[in-house]
Amino acid sequence: MITVLAGGVGAARFLEGMVQIVAPETITAIVNTGDDFILHGLHIAPDLDIVTCTLAGVIHPEQGWGIQDDSFACLEWLGRFGGPTWFQLGDRDLALHIQRTAMLRAGATLTDVADHLRRALGVAVQILPMSDDPQPTHIITAAGEFHFEEYLVERRAADHVLDVRFMGAAQPTPAVLAAIAHAERIVIAPSNPVVSIGPILALPGVRAALRESAAQVIGISPIVGGKAIKGPAVPLMHAIGLPATAVGVAQAYQDVLDVLVIDQVDAHLQPAIEALGIAVIVTDTIMRGAAEKAALARMVLHL
Ligand code: FO1
């Protein structure tokens, strides 16, 4: 089994590469649920849906989130009734959240729901929420404390970030700990180290499980040349005192990582990362198309 710690868009695109190299049934994705929140009375699970719908081939290809060719008739009418429309949820997208909320209300766990939805969409990769309990990510800013999605989408990541806080007292699911313990290879996907991978590592016992696993742990830096490919990794890394570089990524994962894959533009950072006791592979990590995604996955899996 190959176990991948995953957030949203970057991780989903990397997984698209992985399924070209190994049988999808042999891959287990442990997915961040810190972005989850309640909207319209529904349990919204952005990263679970991004990973599931990307692997199902129905994701909006440019955005990396939302369903391709979706319509927004329901959101339009929700707006007429005074409902919130800042989070763009299409009609097909809403079906995911309606079904998830109904199953949870009927007593299913988030793990049951994620498994049901990925199978319904024909996805062979096993998709595990990091926890069945909520651990919402809050962003502390100069203007106040907001849920991550309020900070990122409603407020357009305009606030100055002072700190990041994982709320609640969630536990990793037994399936998550088993996927780490039984993995032959563990990959930390190129997701935001603070708000996508961070919440997974913050769950009690996860870092210890990664250290104790017999599998080599390989990370891929989502920061290239001091910039994030997508999303607010730079201000969030600064807020928790990490340099927004591949070295900062190495520091974020330091006690669990064996190897960090960095981009050629960051080759000069290799000694600083090796000084942290982490081996370095320098390659082209920008996933422009299917071929690059497969090449990166092949390189990571054959290390
Ligand atoms: N991101 C946005 O920037 N704007 C949106 O309106 C938006 C809607 C949305 C709906 C469903 C979904 O699964 C994700 C959505 N995202 C949207 C992405 C999301 O905010 C983040 O990119 C992820 O949570 C971070 O991985």
* Counted beta strands: 14
**CATH architectural designation of the largest domain:** 3-Layer(aba) Sandwich
From the spread of the alpha carbons, the general shape counts as: globular
User: Which small-molecule species are bound to the chains here?
Assistant: ligand FO1
Taken together, the total number of domains comes to 2
| Rg (CA only) | 18 Å
Helical amount: 25-40%
Low-confidence segments, given as residue ranges, are none
The percent range for strand residues is 15-25%
Question: What is the CATH level 1 assignment of the largest domain?
Answer: Alpha Beta
Could you state the order of secondary-structure elements as H and E? EHEEEHHHHEEEHEHEHHEEEHHEHEH
Determine the CATH superfamily of the largest domain: CofD-like domains
- CATH topology (fold) name of the largest domain: Rossmann fold
Estimate the mean pLDDT confidence. 96
Order of the strands making up the biggest sheet? 5-2-1-9-10-13-14
Measured distance between first and last alpha carbons: 15 Å
Structural class: alpha/beta
Biggest β-sheet, characterized?
A: 7 strands, parallel
Number of contiguous helices: 13
Task: Explain what the structure shows.
- This protein is an alpha/beta fold.
- The chain has two domains: 2-135 and 168-301, Rossmann fold (3-Layer(aba) Sandwich); 137-166, no CATH class.
- It is 38% helix and 19% strand.
- The chain has 13 helices and 14 strands.
- It has helices at residues 9-21, 46-55, 73-80, 91-105, 110-120, 148-154, 174-181, 198-202, 206-212, 233-239, 246-252, 270-274, 290-301; strands spanning 2-6, 27-31, 37-39, 42-44, 126-129, 137-141, 144-147, 161-166, 185-188, 216-220, 223-224, 227-228, 259-263, 279-283.
- The chain has a seven-stranded parallel sheet, sandwiched between helices. Strands 7-6-8 form a three-stranded antiparallel sheet.
- β1, α1 (9-21) and β2 (27-31) form a beta-alpha-beta unit.
- It is globular.
- The mean pLDDT is 96.
- Ligand FO1 binds at residues 7-9, 35, 46-47, 49-50, 65-66, 87-89, 93, 149, 152-153, 196.
